[in-house]
Amino acid sequence: MASVTLEEAQANLGGLIHQLAPGDELIVTEGDQPIARIVVPKPRVKLGAMRGSVVYMAPDFDAPLDDFKEYQE
Predict the structure, then answer these.
(1) Do 38 and 26 touch, CB atoms closer than 8 A?
(2) 16, 22, 18: which is closest to 2 by C-alpha?
(3) Where are the domains of the chain?
């Protein structure tokens, strides 16, 4: 979590924001007290975006694995 003074934020806010990665935070302080928190949002995952991407599935996909036979008894 990065921290900058109010004066630094006013002088270079655009540059500071562009340096942040999704999920990062920037705390703006005045004196020694935090007065603002800037959080870069994480990209949202669209449900169903991978639909249709599996084009082949082996016929024995659901078959028990030989390695686990001893646990199935």
Answers:
(1) yes
(2) 16
(3) 1-42
CA–CA–CA angle 22, 35, 25 (5° rounding): 15
The residue among 62, 64, 9, 11 whose CA lies nearest residue 34 is 9
Q: Which residue has 């934020």 as its token pair?
A: 9
Q: E strand or H helix at 70, and its extent? A: helix 69-72
Domain 1-42 has CATH 3.30.420.240: no
Contacts of residue 36, Cβ cutoff 8 Å, sequence gap at least 6: 9, 27, 28
User: Which residue ranges of the chain lie beneath pLDDT 50?
Assistant: none
Cα dihedral angle (38, 43, 44, 45), rounded to 10 degrees? -160
Task: Provide the phi-psi class of 14: left if phi over 0, else alpha when psi is between -120 and 50, else beta.
Answer: alpha
